[in-house]
Amino acid sequence: MKIGNKHYRSLWWDDQQGALQIIDQRALPYDFREQSVASMQDYVDAIAQMRVRGAPLIGATAAYAMAYAMSQDPSDANIQRAWETLYATRPTAVNLRWALDRCKARLLGLNAAERAAAALLLAHEIADEDVDINRRIGEHGLQLIEKIAAKKSPDEPVRLLTHCNAGWLATVDWGTATSPMYHAHNKGIALQVWVDETRPRNQGALTAWELGNHGVPHTYITDNAGGHLMQQGLVDMVIVGTDRTTRRGDVCNKIGTYLKALAAHDNKVPFYVALPSPTIDWTIEDGVADIPIEERNERETTHIQGIDGSGDINTVQVTPEGTVGGNPAFDVTPNRLVTGLITERGVCDASADGLAELFPDLSA
Which CATH topology does 2-129 take? Predict the structure, then answer.
């Protein structure tokens, strides 16, 4: 996607520096900062501190981290050490484990002398695959938007609501939930996107920043406004992303997603999840019981970052002194509340049978 008139991926490899380059998303949407990732601690911090965030992007970053580890020490012991260090950074997003397991399996089958070069090639492969997966999700999601648009007058927009940031900043490019939006906008379909702020980290501001750069009409709303808009008939479809989905279609996504699904269900608004196949955890069925929910630092809830009147990025406290903040980062939406899953292979029911039909090679 583009920032201004320049195409960017959310991460890219710099051959001259021999290092990964990322967009430090902590400063967005106020300041665009590029960062070189040059040590294992840099990789750990990038993931844990949410300089990179979003399940697909975390997975791709971890693959490059494994490549860095092999450039320093290609031993079996360091493969395991790097795997354990990186896996501990974010426990909920399954793409992290998926990428680390894929790297580990590939590298253990090679001689030590081959591992550094092979690991970097694999990281490039994982990044490119993510771009292709998200492009195809967009093409399938576009068909859903086209059906809604066909029932409207030419000057009436398709009204979409999304939660958190499942955009290109959360992937390598295109995004998951935003990919159908970008495809529809590029095709000339009029859109109006309701963007949830998504407290506590206000990742909806990243979605607004993305959509604004691409020229997609959007409105930034409080998390609590979505149900009201649905009651008023102002939402045609909800599209969100996912950090982990069980084999029966339970969806774990940013905290607050479950409440949007409940409101959509009550108001008969279609609720779709954009689902890259690497986010499916085929080892578990019950998302509420079996998905670990990351509890992040309470400061993310008791404080908020923004830009002040002088144009400086500052953090302010929003709670009384001494108030304890709770910060579960994700919740689980049961499959019964999900209208369908938009994958790179097509749209399916949020069910074990639906996923198995699209992914017989993975579900067996």
Answer: Four Helix Bundle (Hemerythrin (Met), subunit A) (1.20.120)
Annotated active-site residue 243? The verdict is yes
What is the reported pLDDT for 333?
A: 98
| Domain ranges within the chain, ordered by starting residue | 2-129, 144-363
Catalytic residue among 196, 243, 250, 281: 243
* Separation CA 137–CA 288 (nearest Å): 26
- Choose among 189, 165, 178: nearest CA to 137: 178
Other beta carbons less than 10 A from residue 286's beta carbon: 13
Distance, CA of 197 to CA of 164 (rounded, Å):
7
Superfamily of domain 144-363: Translation initiation factor eif-2b; domain 2 (3.40.50.10470)
- Render pLDDT for 156-212 as a digit per residue (tens, 0 to 9): 999 999 999 999 999 999 999 999 999 999 999 999 999 999 999 999 999 999 999
Nearest CA among 164, 351, 330 for reference residue 241: 164
Strand partners, 159: 192
Q: How far apart are CA 50 and CA 300, in angstroms?
A: 12
Strands (E), 66-178: 158-162
Nearest-CA neighbor of 65 among 96, 105, 90, 34?
Answer: 96
CA distances from 134 to 121, 123, 163, 168 (A): 20, 17, 17, 9
Q: Rounded distance, CA 354 to CA 347, Å?
A: 9
Identify the burial level of 84 via C-beta atoms within 10 angstroms of its C-beta, where 0-12 means exposed, 13-18 middle and 19 or more buried.
exposed
CA angle, corner 128, sides to 127 and 129, nearest 5? Answer: 90
* pTM exceeds 0.85, yes or no: yes
